[in-house]
Fold this protein.
Amino acid sequence: MAKSDRLATIPPANSRLLRDVVGLTLIIAAGAAGYWLFPDNLALLTRVIAAALLVLSLDLIVGYCGVASLGQAALYGAGAYAAGIACVNGITEPMTLIAIGAVAGAAAGLVMGTIMLRAHGLAQLVLSIAIVQLFHEAANKASAYTGGSDGLAGFSPSPLFGTFAFDLWGRTAYLFGLALLVAVFVALKFVVSSPFGMLCRGIKEDPVRIRAMGAFVFPVLLKMFVISGAVAGMGGALAALSTQVVGLDSVSFELSANSLVMLVLGGLGSLYGALVGTVIFMGFEHIVSAINPFHWMTMVGALLIAVVLVAPGGLGGVLDKVFLARHGARGGQP
């Protein structure tokens, strides 16, 4: 492709800024609408927010770095268990528990990245499955700390800022989760738009050329694994705070697979796509499973096949193209 053609595919900086402002406004507006329109389903919406953080973390390594992974739940579960265990042992301040979850997720990401990045392609995928299974078995065996198959329960976070208690209706947990999601999303937009984020995209496209330019691929990808782990850990900690129980399902292969499905549904390499895919998948799952609790996965599979055939770039990519087309740009940077 000629240089002029490549430049033509990049939207102007003011268009990207407008898109981000509109996107962030829509996220906040959707969150506020959920609070007022579905007051009896705030627990479910909080679970959606926690899952969105997990899918965002997965997008960082799969969508932006091109690292195949089916073990992201290991990082999510590390944050959930770390926050739960800390709360059981007397650390009950919610912000501190989220920070503990982020640190635990980042540490798990460091370990996972160090192992996975030694391989490539299919071998990476197999390693990620092995890692999440090992995390699952470790959580099951360490029942003295994690509760094993019974789950970790009997903990309760203290009121947020000493005022807002985590009530039975989930109002505090939902608003806290929404604020956390917005803050993390803004931070990740800066990360993926930074020179570091551009380098990660370059590694995804052509790692050989990046090495020839003098960059070290392994440390760059490992840093993104740590960031991804911190985001997933915060999602796990939020889930632990909102439900006040941590089970083995938070570190299961099924959760990892579902998060990848959500990402593909929304679109790889797009933070907006990660959010769109999470909301659509979990909303569709909630509605369809209530209608047909035995065969709802069949309908979810049909939805995924339809999206992949009609919109290979995901639903988020379709929305992105529509926005750019309306503002006089073709294509765009996620």
Observations:
- Residues 217-243 form the longest helix (27 residues).
